[in-house]
Amino acid sequence: xxxGANRVLARTSSGGIRWSRIPWRTIIALAFILPASISxxxxxxxxxxxxxxTKDDVWAWPIVxxxxxxxxQNYAEAWNEFPFTRLYINTADLTVMRLLGTFLSCTxxxxxxxxxxxxxxxxxxxxxxxxxxxxRQVTLIPxxxxxxxxxxxxxxxxxxxxxxxxxxxxxxLLRQFFMSIPxxxxxxxxxxxxxxxxxxxRVYLPLSIPALATVAIFSFQSSWGDFFDPMIYIxxxxxxxxxxxxxxFKGMAEYGGITYWHYIMAMSMVMILPPLIVFFSAQRxxxxxxxxxxxxx
Length: 297
Description:
Elements: H1 3-9, H2 24-50, H3 73-81, H4 84-115, H5 121-130, H6 136-149, H7 157-160, H8 168-179, H9 183-191, H10 196-207, H11 209-224, H12 228-233, H13 242-252, E1 254-255, E2 258-259, H14 261-281, H15 283-292
Antiparallel strand pairs: 1-2
């Protein structure tokens, strides 16, 4: 343990921390981190507490930070007011299909850019990265016209099929991680008779759990909370995901100029719960993947 850590852990005879021995860098870091952490957690806490209040207490002044009693029945009442079960199933189906398309396309392309030799590979990779600078609005109308002409509007095809054509950001992340794996491992597998797909499947993917977890978290969060694409392509309420369903539910929760925000907050909590669980469950792999994707490249 270094001297700085010893100073931080130094204690007085009464058991208190000797603040005079704490490095000033640590004090400055805490001064920035603590307010930032509070500002991040506070909106989630307010949404959660609001979901357990009455409609009059949501915007009451002074703010009711600890409502009594806690109205857990708000969740059941809001859930029964709208077909959220169907919306949840739709969202789960869409997320699984989009995750599958992302993994299949991005891993293969990233492996090719990382390990295969081909003329002009560097130029193609630069072209791929340049697509990240292309605003989504530029391609929105052409894509809509294409799906309209093939008769795929009001279906899941426009939401799922593009994921099977890769994502430039995810390909970049996986390519950087694949390049950090010693190429001798792939060469040894090739000597043993493995094909390129076998090397990817048996060697690279098992060693790339942190990078794959990072891609899974990003893809899951963007797919689960996607509001824009369903709004453009889906018209049938029975096919909509929960993100767009909550928007419709907000309109239904407005009666006589009064918005029942406690119901909306309850369903918003239900919506964000799966992404939070996925993130905190894979947080260790996520941090490791983000750090290691910048090792080589």
